[in-house]
Amino acid sequence: MSTAKATDRVLSTLNVDGSRRWLRPRLSEGSFWHKRRAVAYGLMFLFFIIPYLRMNGHPVILLDLPKREFHLFGATFLPTDTLLFMLLFVSIGIGIFLLTALFGRVWCGWGCPQTVYMEFLFRPLERLIEGGRTGTLALDRQTGLKPRRLLKYGVFLLLSLFLAHTFLAYFVGIERLVQWVRLSPVEHPTAFFVMAATTAAIMFDFTYFREQTCLVACPYGRLQSVLLDRKSLIVGYDYGRGEPRTKGAKHTEGAGDCIDCGACVQTCPTGIDIRDGLQMECIHCTQCADACDEIMDRVGRPRGLVRYTSRDELEGKPKRFLRPRVVLYPLALTIAVGAFLFFLTTKEDTDVTILRGIGAPYSFEPDGRVVNQVRIRVTNRADSPREYQIELAGADGAQVIAPENPLRVAPGELRTTSLFIVGPRSLFHDGKRAISVQLSDGNTYSASLPYTMVGPDDDDGDDDVEPKREGPREDDR
Predict the structure, then answer these.
(1) Could you please report the per-residue DSSP string of 46-75?
(2) Most CB atoms within 10 A, among 5, 116, 140, 394?
């Protein structure tokens, strides 16, 4: 059985025979590169410094999964904040849609950690240690022991350890991380395993997988066909100005400005040719634009053969900023962010949920009084412990029996307690009685929770009397 052989590369990182094609892009230090470098170093600094910053007594960003608490810029989010989480994620999603519709894949080229650390930390160190692009290509052709490459791997491992520890600080806090670093891994095996796995993942990514993260693993490039429109900003090649191509700097009549030097291909970190049009692999890093501008300066032709533009502009169509998605996305984003801020600023520092007890809806005491079991869940969102007094209102002759009253709840803790509301048969009409369970900490919080007790109908006789429940069962606590 014969198989068809490929005539061209399927991916820019694969050769025709299916082997790995290692990309060693040439650095083009143009105006875009200098701006991207400033942004990249600023983002790196923020990533390293944020775990040390505090706001309202908490880290600026702390995603404490064991405690199920998220601290974001002074606000604390608990597992009960499902509405806030939903609005936050919806806002982020709409923001991505809007950013892409306006500026294309600017996130990929300017802000994505994969691009930032690959192009402005790991790859510069690789060039420094291995002797630039020429030295790296020479090492690729060598066999046997390569001391420079081993040194590079050692430096990459140290960087991966540092990045992994910094990443872990966002989930455990810098104070706990410092303690763990000073202790034996045996005393915190789970955290050590997470750190080791993160280090291995970072090392694998920036040592071996590299640009394939963008080409194979990341779905963003595959979504650009629906996120972009023909007026979205992209990095594009001016086909009308550049074609037909001619080799050499001498400009012949009827020829385009492109001299087919290949600089844009040599400098591309994903190995594509920008002259082939908009492609999934393009991360809009503008390295091709910097390389082309440098060549245009040398041959005395205007810059901008490769530039930030749009597909409509490249086809000579008029620019038009306003379009439906540019209006609808900001409107939806305003609504989502506004709702998030409203619910965030108006949220109480105590969450209370009242639930009916497990088992029979009601029971009887030997003296004929009716017993309703109630469960109350209290979440203390404050930074200090609180004691909540539980009382009844609108239930003449009824009383509440609780194993712990007042109920003490630690900061950020969710506690569930069982109550027994006991009242006379005369309290009920048609088997129901509306009451209020009042909860107060005696200081800043007070709430009245409506609750409907259930009991016997007015015409029920004594035959319905059940044995007395001896108190809360173990599974009711």
Answers:
(1) HHHHGGG-EETTEESEEEETTTTEEEETTE
(2) 116
- For the chain, give the number of residues: 477
Q: Tokens 């630690």 identify what position?
A: 410
Instruction: Using the predicted structure, report yes or no on whether residue 359 has a pLDDT greater than 60.
Output: yes
Largest CA distance in the chain: 111
For 90, counting Cβ atoms within 10 Å of its Cβ (0-12 exposed, 13-18 middle, 19+ buried), the class is middle
Whether the pLDDT of residue 447 is over 60: the answer is yes
Query: Where do the H-state alpha helices sit in 261-362?
Result: 263-266, 287-299, 311-314, 324-345
245-252 long-range contacts (CB < 8 A, ≥24 apart) are 249/298, 249/299, 251/299, 251/301
Q: How many CB atoms lie within 10 A of CB 179?
A: 13
- Distance, CA of 303 to CA of 306 (rounded, Å): 8
Q: Token pair for residue 354?
A: 């009242």
Model pLDDT for residues 232-253, shown as the tens digit of each residue: 999 999 999 999 998 877 777 8
Which one, of 119, 151, 121, lies nearest residue 135 by Cα? 151
Alpha-carbon gap, residue 325 to 332, rounded angstroms: 10
Do residues 272 and 215 touch, judged by C-beta distance below 8 A? no
Distance separating alpha carbons of residues 224 and 214, to the nearest angstrom: 13
- Helix (H, G, I), strand (E, B), or coil: what is residue 291? helix
Q: Mind listing the domains of the chain with CATH numbers?
A: 31-80+112-210 (no CATH), 350-476 (2.60.40.10)
pTM of the predicted protein model: 0.81
User: What DSSP designation does 14 have?
Assistant: B
